Amino acid sequence: MRRWQGDQIFFGGDYNPEQWPEETWAEDVDLMRRAGVNLVSVGIFSWALLEPAPGRYEFGWLDRVLDLLHAGGIGVDLATATASPPPWLARAHPETLPRRADGTVLWPGGRQAYCPSSPVFRDRSLALVEAIAGRYAEHPAVVMWHVSNELGCHNVHCYCDVSAEAFRTWLRDRYGDLDRLNAAWGTAFWTQRYGDWAEINPPRTAPTFANPTQQLDFLRFSSDEQRAQLRAEREVLRRLVRQPVTTNFMIGTGIKYLDYHSWAGDVDLVANDHYLTAADPRAHVNLALSADHTRGVAGGEPWLLMEHSTSAVNWQPRNVAKTPGQLRRNSLAHVARGADGVLFFQWRASRAGAEKFHSALVPHAGPDTKVFREVCQLGADLGALAEVRGSRVDADVAILFDYEAWWGVELDSHPSVDVTYSDRLAALHDALWRAGITADVVHPSTDLGRYRLVLAPTLYLVRDADADALRRFVEGGGTALVTYFSGVVDENDHIRLGGYPGAFRELLGVRTEEFFPLRAGERVRLDDGATADVWTEWLHPEGAEVLASYADGPLPGVAAVTRHAVGEGAAWYLGTRLDEAATDALVARLVAESGVRPAVPAAPGVEVVRRRDDERSWLFVINHTGDPARLSVSGVDLLTGARCDGELTVPAGEVAVIREDPAAAAA
User: Fold this and answer.
1) What are phi and psi of 471, to 5 degrees?
2) Does the pTM exceed 0.90?
3) Rounded distance between C-alpha atoms, residue 271 and residue 307, angstroms
4) Could you tell me the pLDDT band of residue 39, with boundaries at 50, 70 and 90?
5) What would you report as the CA-atom Rg of the chain, rounded to the nearest whole angstrom?
6) Which residues contact 408 (CB under 8 A, 6 or more apart)?
7) What is the DSSP letter of 539?
8) Could you read off the pLDDT of 356-380 as tens digits, one per residue?
9) Angle formed by the axes of helices 161-175 and 178-185, to 10°?
10) DSSP code for 191
11) Among all residues, which ones are annotated catalytic?
12) Distance CA 229, CA 82 (A)
C-alpha cells in the first residue's frame, strides 16, 4: 500500500474549473487559501474536454489549472476522467450503451451511460488513463489519483447482449461446468435446467419470479464488473505513477449492489461519499453508521471522506439546508469516527446543469455567506486537529454486515416484504449510539477476537466458515446477538434444512419450525412488557434460556427472546422486531453482560467517540442537543486551546476535541 497521509488532515472538495471562465481560477485559489483548503479533486467529469475526438487529447487547460494550484500550495487528487463517456463514444459505438432488464436503452444526456462489460468502453477509458497518467505522473501538485467516480452509481446493472456474454464467462469461471451451475441454481424447479451456456441470460424481465440464485449471481457478477473497471484503471496507474490510488465508495447512501468489502484491497486508501437524508431528523445517527461501516471496510484504518455537502443537495424530494453549526458537527463526526480528510462536492456551486442547486464551499451568493464562513471555521478546526491523523477509533462492539446477505434477504417470494436488511442494522446501531457505544461495522469473515460484543442483524445468507467464526467467538468468552431471519440459507440461497435459524441453530440453542410474519400494522405484546411487530416465529428452546415470550398474537406463550450459554460466552436470539424502547433495553443488557463501556458517559444526544494511537488519545464530543453538555474529562481542547480539569462543558450545538490526560484516558 502506498502512503497517503501527509502532515495534516485533508480538507477541500471537487474542483471543476472547466465550468468557469479562466479568470475565475486565480480567485478560486485565493479563496481556497483563505479557507484552509489543501486538497481538491480535479478532472472527474472532463473526458469530453480532455479527449474531444477519439485519440485527440487537449491538456493545455489542465496544465494551467494544476500549475496554478501547485503555486497556491494546494494538492490535487487527480481523476482519471472516466466517470462518464463523451457523446462521441455512444455515437460511434451505440453498443456501449447500457440496457435495463426490460430492454430499455439508457442514452447519453445524464452520466455513466455505458455498459460496464463493454470492451469498447474499457479500451477507450484505459487509453485515456494512460494518456493522463503519462502526462501528470510527476506533476508536483498531484498527491493522489482518483479512479472514475462513484462507480456503479447509475449503471450498476446492464442486461444487454454484451453483458449477457460477460455473465456467461463469469459463471463458467465460478462453476466450471453446467452440472454444478444447475445444482447451485436449483434448476430442477420449474424445469429450468440448462444444457448449453448460450441458453443462460441475465435475469431479464420474465413472466413471473426469476430464479433467486440466478438473481443473486447476477448481482455478484455486476459488482465484480464494476470492480474490474476499478482494477483495470488501477493497474495502468500503478505502472505509471508513484502516488496512492483510490476511488470514492458510497457506503451508507443507499447504494446496495456494490460489495465494497471485496473492493477494499484494490485501493491504497478507502474513500467514501456520504450525504444526509434531509427527511430524517436523526440523520446524524445514520452518518455515524456510515462512518462506522466505512471504517470497517477500511479494516479499522483511517479513511478519507471524499464527498459530503456543505448544506442542501439537489436530488432529494425536499432538499433541506443545513442549520448553522451543522456543517461543522457533521464534518467533525466523520473525523471522530476515523476520517483523516474531509472533502465536499463541490468547491464552487454550478450555475448550470443538473446539480446547480447542490450546495458548495462557495455558494451562488459568494464568500460573504453563512456557508463560506463555516467552511473557513472548519478549515481552521481541521488544521488544529492535525495531530489526530493516523490514530484509530476505539470500539469493543462489532456489527456484522454482508452485502450478499442484504441482496439475498430482499429478493422476492419471501415470508414478508417488511423484513429488510437495513432495518435491524440501523435499529441496533441507533441503540448503541444512544447508549454512547461505538461499534465497528464489519464483514462476518473479520477476526472477531478483539471485540467483547458482536451483533448479527438479519444475516439471512451466511457461509459455514463465518457461522463457525461466530461460534468460536462466543465459546471464547464473547457475547453475541443474532436476530430473526438469520442463518436461513447458504451462499447459493438454498435453505438450511432441519429448522431455522439454520447455520446458528446449535449456537443459539433454539429451533424454529415455522415463521409467523405479522400483517401490516399488527402488533404483539411480550410478557416482559415490550411490544413488537412485523415478525414472530414458532420457536422451540433446545438448551437456551427463555428471557421473554409472546403474551398475545398468533403465538402466545412461545419464546421470543432467548440466551444460550456456550463455552465461556453467551449467544442471544431475538425472534421478533422489538420497538425502540425494548431494543434499547435489550442492548443495555447485552452491553452490561459483555462489559462494554462508553468512552465517557454523556447525556442523550451527545456523541462521544475516542481515537487513540500508541501514546495519546483524543475524545471527540459533539453536542447535537439544544442544551449545554457536561462530562467528566481532563485534558486540552485542540479547537480552543482551553484546558479542562475533571469537567468539560460543551455548549449546545458545539464540538470539543480533547487531547486526554494519560491517566484520564486509561481510567
Assistant:
1) -60, -45
2) yes
3) 9
4) very high
5) 26
6) 212, 216, 460, 461, 489, 493
7) E
8) 999 999 999 999 999 999 999 999 9
9) 100
10) G
11) 150, 307
12) 10
Q: What is the rounded distance in angstroms from the CA atom of residue 599 to the CA atom of residue 472?
A: 27
pLDDT digits (tens, 9 = 90+) for 296-307: 999 999 999 999
Percent of the chain with pLDDT over 70: 99
Dist. CA 149–CA 479, nearest whole Å: 40
Q: In what order do the strands lie in the sheet with 577-578?
A: 523-525, 531-533, 577-578
Instruction: Give pLDDT tens digits for 271-320.
Output: 999 999 998 989 999 999 999 999 999 999 999 999 999 999 999 999 99
Task: Specify the pLDDT at position 6.
Answer: 84
Q: Where do the domains of the chain lie, and which CATH numbers do they carry? A: 10-157+222-390 (3.20.20.80), 397-594 (3.40.50.880), 606-666 (2.60.40.1180)
Q: How far, in Å, CA of 316 to CA of 278, rounded?
A: 8
Question: Please, which residues have CB within 8 angstroms of residue 549's CB and are 6 or more apart in sequence?
Answer: 526, 527, 556, 557, 558, 559, 560
Residues 65, 311: Cα–Cα separation, whole Å: 27
- Using CA atoms, how far apart are residues 181 and 563, in angstroms rounded to an integer? 39
User: Dihedrals φ, ψ of 510, to 5°?
Assistant: -140, 160
Instruction: Let me know the angle formed at the C-alpha of 72 by 69 and 78, rounded to the nearest 5 degrees.
Output: 25
**What span, in angstroms and rounded, lies between the C-alpha atoms of 9 and 34?**
16
Q: Where are the alpha helices (DSSP H) in 36-150?
A: 47-50, 60-71, 87-92, 119-136
Please tell me the predicted confidence (pLDDT) of residue 4. 87
Is the dihedral angle over the CA atoms 335, 339, 340, 341 positive or is it negative?
A: negative
Mean of per-residue pLDDT scores for the chain: 97
CA pair distance 508, 569, nearest whole angstrom? 11
Is residue 246 a contact partner of residue 270, using CB atoms and an 8 Å limit? yes
HSE, CB side, 13 Å, CA atoms: give it for residue 140. Answer: 8
Confidence at 127, pLDDT banded by 50, 70, 90: very high
What average pLDDT does range 393-405 have in this prediction?
A: 98
Residues whose CB falls within 8 Å of the CB of residue 539, separated by 6 or more in sequence, listed in order: 510, 511, 512, 558, 559, 560, 562, 573, 575
**Euclidean distance between CA atoms 282 and 279, whole angstroms:** 9
Q: Which helix (H) or strand (E) is 511 found in, with range?
A: strand 510-515
d(CA 299, CA 307): 20
Nine cell digits for residue 225:
464488473
- C-alpha cell at position 630: 457536561
Q: Could you write out the DSSP letters of every residue in 287-343?
A: HHHHHHHHHHHTTTS-EEEEE--SS--SSSSS-PPPPTTHHHHHHHHHHHTTEEEEE
Name which of 345, 341, 344, 348 is nearest 383 in CA terms. Answer: 341
Using the structure block, give the residue that is written with the C-alpha cell 460511434: 92
* Interatomic CA distance for residues 215 and 24, integer angstroms: 50
